[in-house]
Amino acid sequence: MNADVEVAGDTEMAGDTGAGAMDRITARAAAQLAVLEQVRGDLTALSSTASVDDGRVTVRLDAGGGLADLHLAPGAAQGDAERLGRLITEAAAAADLELCAAREAILAAFTEQFDDTSVEFADTPGAEGTGAVPATSNCQPTVVRERSSAVRSNDE
């Protein structure tokens, strides 16, 4: 004779309580994998564009912060090569800041979506250590990082 046992809101047959918990874990993992794949796709599809000098210098960065496109309109930097270099860097830095903010928004939404894991599986044997990992931002624009590295190496 089998007795019914209540396990985290599910009624299951005695001796089968671990299977219900495992089914929940498997379903949750499948859902997280689907969301991770979506996040990866969203991050890969990112790009950012910024313009300076009244739109005469336009930079587009790819998802990794690499230069994907540079458009220089007639009259950019008024023909001054040094100023043009600064304007390109300024546009790239602005685009990189936007890219960084977009990445953080995608990752923050992902983190928030799965911050309840420890509550959901609190009654699951061996669930210690599950749960939210606080999101921390180390997002520093690529252009700024590279420029800072160049300044340090020139000073040494």
Spans of at least 5 consecutive residues with low confidence: 1-15, 127-135, 147-156
CATH homologous superfamily placement? Nucleoid-associated protein YbaB-like domain
How do the helices and strands follow one another from N- to C-terminus? EEHEEEHHH
Distance between the termini: 80 Å
Protein name: YbaB/EbfC DNA-binding family protein
Organism: Gordonia alkaliphila
Region (Disordered): 124-156
InterPro entries: YbaB-like_sf, YbaB/EbfC
Topology summary:
Blueprint: E1 4-7, E2 10-13, H1 17-45, E3 48-52, E4 57-61, E5 67-72, H2 81-113, H3 117-120, H4 142-155
Key features of this structure:
156 residues, alpha+beta, Ybab, Chain: A, three-stranded antiparallel β-sheet, two-stranded antiparallel sheet, disordered C terminus, YbaB-like_sf
Task: Walk me through what this model shows.
- This is YbaB/EbfC DNA-binding family protein.
- Residues 124-156 are annotated as: Disordered.
- InterPro entries: YbaB-like_sf (IPR036894), YbaB/EbfC (IPR004401).
- This protein is of the alpha+beta class and 156 residues long.
- The protein has one domain: 2-Layer Sandwich (Ybab, Chain: A), CATH 3.30.1310.
- It contains 4 helices and 5 strands.
- It has helices at residues 17-45, 81-113, 117-120, 142-155; strands spanning 4-7, 10-13, 48-52, 57-61, 67-72.
- The strands form 2 sheets. The chain has a 3-stranded antiparallel beta sheet, with helices on one face.
- Helix 1 (17-45) packs antiparallel against helix 2.
- The longest helix has 33 residues, at 81-113.
- The chain is rod-shaped, with a radius of gyration of 25 Å.
- 12% of the residues are buried.
- The model is unreliable at 1-15, 127-135 and 147-156 (pLDDT under 50).
